[in-house]
Amino acid sequence: MAFLHLVNCVILTFAPIFLIFNTTSLHEHGFKICISGVIGYIISAAIKLLVYATFVPAYETWTLYAEVIKEAIGVIDVYILIWVLDWKLSKVGDSRSRILGIGLGWALGEMILSHLLIFLFNAGGGEFTWEYLQRAIHANCEIAQLISFVCIVGAFKLFSASLKIPSFVLLGVKIVGFPIIKGLLLQKGLLAEWSSLAFEGVYSGVLALATKVLIDIALVI
User: Fold this and answer.
1) Annotated domain spans of the chain
2) How far apart are CA 7 and CA 78, in angstroms?
3) Distance between CA 34 and CA 40 in Å, rounded?
4) What tens digit of pLDDT does each residue of 158-173 get?
């Protein structure tokens, strides 16, 4: 039973990545179109971990100031993504496929380092708990958010200058705005475990839709 629980969590976490890869133009280029995204995520995660450990003090209670500082470090992701977009290894396929491939690779890196290891060491033992299924659902929301994030950075970097302001606004919402709002609602007791997932799901859908509109406009201009 515990093993089936582990398998269910892993499948639920990684199935969207498999489906996106095989139902889009990405499969025509092979996994190499996603490799630069995975590498970029690992580099960014390592740098952020070092910055967190060095410059961000530990707070015993939730404070707005501490959260702003912590989330603002996510700007490192933007700089690494800009570097990845210019990387020779990323020059595979057309602009749309390249950005989607990097986004999927970035999301895959997040799923492996932030979720898979936790599932392997925890979800396979003991009795059934909703904690890891909730984590898998949360991971699905993260996939949508991370792919959208990479697409927004791509629009900011590669496309028309007229899209820089809406791209900048969406990046601000993704990096700082939503995490702080969600943290504040959790701190005030206005969100519980399932309602928090629902809130994040709605946000992920809205962000993905806004990103699609942005990319469609970018490709027309």
Assistant:
1) 2-220
2) 33
3) 10
4) 766 777 888 899 999 9
